[in-house]
Each structure stands twice: as C-alpha cells, then as structure tokens.
Request: fold
Amino acid sequence: MKNRLLIILLLCAVVFSSAQESDSLSVKKEEIVIAKDSDLIKEPYDPLTPSKAAFYSAVLPGLGQAYNKKYWKIPIIYAGIATGVYFHIQNDKEYDRFRNAYKRRLAGFTDDEFYGEGTSPLVSTDRLIDAQKSAQRNKDLSIVMSLVFYLVNIIDANVDAHLRQYNVSDDLSLRPNVALDPIHAQANYSLSLKFNLK
Reply:
C-alpha cells in the first residue's frame, strides 16, 4: 500500500508539473520611458535666415556660405569671380594695345608694334579695328561672367539656408530593384513610386 501511494503521488507530481506552461496571454508591465528634452525640442523655423544668408552674400561674396557653414563653397565662388576679373584685365590690356596702334596709324606713324619691319604693315588697319571689337566683347563677357558668379553666390546662400531648415524623414529612401525577364533573360528597367502610408 505504501508503494501504491508513493507511485500515485509521483504520478500526480509529474502530471501537474507538465501542466505548468507559461501564460501567453499575460499582461506585461508597461515601462515608463523618459525622453530627453534635447530629443523633443526641434530648432524653430526662422523665416529670416534665408534672407539673412542672401544679404550676407550680397555684402561680401562667400559670407552667406560661411553663415550656412558651407565653407568648402567659398574658394569656388572666389575662383569664379577672380577668373572673370583676370580675363577682364587681360582683355583690357589687349584692347589698349590695339587701340594705341590704331591711333598711331591714324596720326600717320608707322612705328607701332603691329607694323613690322617692311614698308607694308603686318596687321592692316581694318584688322586692328576688328581686334579692338573682339577685345571689347571679351572684356564685356568677362564682366558678365564675374556678375554671374556673384549672383550664383547669392542664390546659393539663399537656397542652402532654405534647405537647411527642410526636414528630411528617415522613411524616405531609394530601393533599386532589378526584375529579370524569364523569357528573354534580360533585365527590365523601370521607374516606380511606392507609397507606404502609416
């Protein structure tokens, strides 16, 4: 009888112990998450920032880029403006050379740098007039080139300040997908736009 009672107790212990499964419907305790103030506070939108950057670039080229903390753009701006100024100075010197030779020829002198050693000139008077016009046109184009770089400097500072305040979401992404055509064994190229609404 003692053995039977012992066997029944052991059997009950085994049966009841296997019935102890974890409850999948149990309610878990909620954790309280404390967010830092720096995570929640965003930099406020300042509508005057783009105009301030444009004003700074108008006053001194490159100052708007420094205001936007895009320092690598400053040498490009100054190189573009300096290139236009350099070509303006060079073309102005060429224009003066052609103009002085033309004036001396009109005065009756034959000792200008374009006359040469012989009795006939190496460069005719008509060619000197054409050279003056060409040098004048190149001078004007170099001024226009410098002005274009100056205006691009202002526009870039303004647009960059606008884009600095633009918030780009992490959900925005590009996922290229190549689909192979099983019949022709070639890749099909296409463009698709996929929206995930949350």
User: Anything to note?
Assistant: The CA atoms of residues 54 and 154 lie 5 Å apart. Residues 72-165 form one domain. The longest strand covers residues 179-181. The chain is about 55% helix and 5% strand.
